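re: ur question from earlier - yeah i can do the single chain one, its not a big deal. heres the input i used so u can compare w yours
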Amino acid sequence: MKRTRRNSKNKARNIVFNYIKENAKIYLILIIIFFIGLILGILFVNNSNETQSNQISSYINNFINSVKENYQISTKELLFSSIFNNICIATLLWFLGSTVIGVPLIYLVIGYKGYCIGYTISAITATLGTEKAILFIFSTMLLQNIIYIPAIITLAVSGIKLYRLIMEDRRRENIKLQIFKHTIFSLLILTILICSSLVETYISGNLSQMLIKYC
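and the output i got, formated as tokens:
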């Protein structure tokens, strides 16, 4: 049994490693685009005017104060909201990857996700200061994004790879086969995204209620 499990783990690792190796260039491009979005989000907050800065600070402070006052966030609502959002992003990336004209938009989606994360991190840091911001980001964002970000980038890679395979062989049989493979892969990534929703709800949610009192 132990040998079988080890062999299964080794096979899974080899599959993942080979997939990343085969698509290293696409991964690199998407990671660069993600970080460009991240930097743009940070720069936007740093260069925002006083009114925008006050609005951002007010929103974050109100959220922190509501948690400190033992405001109860509905776990069920948070979970369903997170799962719904992840289904939407997985469906969007699947659809864009399955259409020739949609492939360029995949890069925009990844860049936008980077922008949103950069914006959020910069806004929190500007409002709370570096030390408290680290605590806040760790408790509310870090854990689920360790799963979420690699998952959406991998799904984006699958979509771009699908486009290239179809361009190489435009036979109807090949197109159907590649779209089918992309769909199965997308469903696998969706299960990973749902795991990130569970982490966000049950681990990050509890952590935020415990640690946010020190912010």
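DSSP finds seven helices and no strands in the chain. not sure if urs matches, ping me
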